[in-house]
Specification:
Ribosomal_uL4; rRNA binding; 206 residues; ribonucleoprotein; alpha/beta
Length: 206
């Protein structure tokens, strides 16, 4: 089993922890990780763009001028695409960009992302991340002690003060074990997780 050091919020090493190889020690599948990132970004797209075609623009029912004899090019409608105020030729319409991954694919991608962070020594386990009060200053100090700047903080469900203390820090995001995703794990330089959160991850994804 992979073994990582455990730190307190002062940045001091207080022990070590063995990680489950079924989650943190698998062979990294880069292809499935790429698919998960693409799916995540695609699923965030709203797909609500819309422009009117010549058939949807109001007006233009009458022929602007007669077919011959005016010296102008023939025109059938003032709502043709070449006219100001006319329709768009290949107008975008609302669509669904979402990409579906199977449950096994999603889990494999997540495990691969977590394993890559452990392999790169960018997975830090903190003994206890609970805070007595909501204080951004204390959270900044804790991250400084851990020598972390851009980080994904994974906390257990009941650590509300920790979440609220970190929400205004630039480059820091919090997540619970049930809401972590491949994109965030790879986006932030370091994953900082409490021991309780690591245990929950191993229970949920094992």
């Amino acid at each position: 089993m992979a073994k990582v050091s455990v730190y307190d919020i002062e940045g001091k090493e207080v022990g070590d922890m063995e990680l489950n190889d079924a989650i943190f020690g698998i062979e990294v599948n880069e292809h499935i990780v790429h698919m998960a990132v693409v799916a995540h970004l695609a699923n965030k797209r709203q797909g609500t763009q819309k422009a009117k075609t010549r058939g949807e623009v109001r007006g233009g029912g009458r022929k602007p001028w007669r077919q011959k004899g005016t010296g102008h090019a023939r025109q059938g409608s003032i709502r043709s695409p070449q006219w100001k105020g006319g329709g768009v030729v290949f107008a975008p319409t609302p669509r669904d960009y979402s990409i579906k991954l199977n449950k096994k694919e999603r889990r494999l991608a997540l495990k691969s992302a977590l394993t890559s962070r452990v392999n790169d020594n960018k997975f830090i386990v903190v003994d206890d991340f609970k805070m007595d009060e909501i204080k951004t200053k204390k959270m900044v100090a804790a991250l400084t002690n851990l020598k972390v700047s851009k980080a994904l903080i994974v906390t257990s469900e009941n650590e509300t003060n920790t979440v609220l203390s970190a929400r205004n820090i630039r480059g820091v995001k919090t997540a619970s074990p049930n809401t972590i995703n491949v994109y965030d794990i790879l986006k932030y330089n370091t994953v900082v997780a409490s021991k309780a959160a690591v245990n929950t991850i191993e229970e949920v994804y094992a």
